[in-house]
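Re: beginner question about structure tokens

> Can someone show what the tokenized structure looks like for a real chain? I only ever see the sequence side.

Sure, here's an example I had lying around. Input first:
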Amino acid sequence: MKNVYKRPESPTHSLNKHSDSNLPLKVDSSNIMAAVHASWIKLDQRGEGQGARSSHAIAVVAQKVYAFGGEFVPRVPVDNNLHVFDLETLTWSVADASGDIPPPRVGVTMAAVGETIYVFGGRDGEHKELNELYSFDTRANKWALISRGDIGPPNRSYHSMTADDRHVYVFGGCGVHGRLNDLWAFDAVEGKWVEFPSPGESCKGRGGPGLAVAQGKIWVVYGFSGEEMDDVHCFNLAHKTWTQVETSGLKPTARSVFCTLGNGKHIIVYGGEIDPSDQGHLGAGQFSGELYALDTDTLAWKRLEDKANSDNHPGPRGWCAFAGARCGGRQGLLVYGGNSPSNDRLDDIFFLALSQERVN
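And the corresponding structure tokens:
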């Protein structure tokens, strides 16, 4: 791929051209809605897995989960192996990878476009923020360094990453000089980075936000900006404009480092830190185990019934690795590991099976 840094070409992308772009958006919620149903399943694990950790990342290609990075001891990267979990056999293995293998890191993100996985940023063992973009070809089991330095987003960790069928999107995180609120896209076909317009001061720089693609928009949900946040913003990919939206319904309490999934017109939110530790990253704050869905048509939140007291429920946690997956013929959210309220790193895997039903 050719390393190209590309900014938006047209000055009409400026938010100043849209006087209402930063005003809260309200939508009538009286229309027919799709009710989301959810159920957790705890997956067995065979073979030698990645082990307990947090601040790691996963991406799913076909029926295989690829896991990379993370910590067992706070701020100390564990390894740089690419661990593979087969969703059909429930067996772990380690990829026999070649090429430009990324060094160990924490606070890293991963996303898949087709059969290629992309890994961006993170923090190394010296607590240095990173900005390399790596790709991993799951067919050839080969790593490649795509961009670094002045090409692409500045250095960061604990940012968020998501993807559609062509692009990888990166938002926010902890930068060298503070928390960030910038949005970037990497075009996997053309091999180009694009920096989108800034959301402005209405969307504070933040770490650990939710990021999802839904209905032609990139959604930024909550995050940590010196305190836990409970605001929602969206970026219209067609018009290149930001909007701060006003949500309704039973909205989640402010939180960060939670699991997020775009599922049709819904954004699924699970867990996260709702009260930070007074020891910072060295301690465990207060975590949530609740599950919510945001309808991006009506902008109404709903808390989902997910049998919170059952043995199959993952319980309160944050700093997890998560990704959309298909398991047992159902689409849903895969959650792996994370940090617990007792500050213990976890090594379990849960699958949230999702379904929708039209209701009046």
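Each token stands for a local structural state, so reading them left to right follows the chain. The mean pLDDT is 89.
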